[in-house]
Amino acid sequence: MTGLFFGYGPGLYAEVPRFMQQGFAAVLIGLQLLVSPWWL
């Protein structure tokens, strides 16, 4: 996530509204929950 939102990546922090950042984080966490049993 820091690679997307901070300056050493695309720097989307000031470009994307806060509610969309939270939605993106929720989707990413959901994907991690789906993949984690396979990974472990």
Explain the layout of strands and helices.
Blueprint: H1 2-5, H2 18-39
Mean pLDDT: 84
Number of strands: 0
Helix content: 55-70%
Q: How many discrete domains?
A: 1
Q: Give me the secondary-structure category.
A: mainly alpha
What best-fitting shape do the alpha-carbon axes yield? elongated
- Specify the number of helices: 2
* Largest sheet: number of strands, sense, barrel closure: none
SSE ordering: HH
Q: Termini distance?
A: 22 Å
Are there runs of 5+ residues with pLDDT below 50, and where? Answer: none
Strand content: under 5%
Give an overview in words.
This protein is mainly α. 65% of the residues lie in helices and 0% in strands. The chain is built from 2 helices and no strands. It has helices at residues 2-5, 18-39. It is elongated and about 35 Å long.
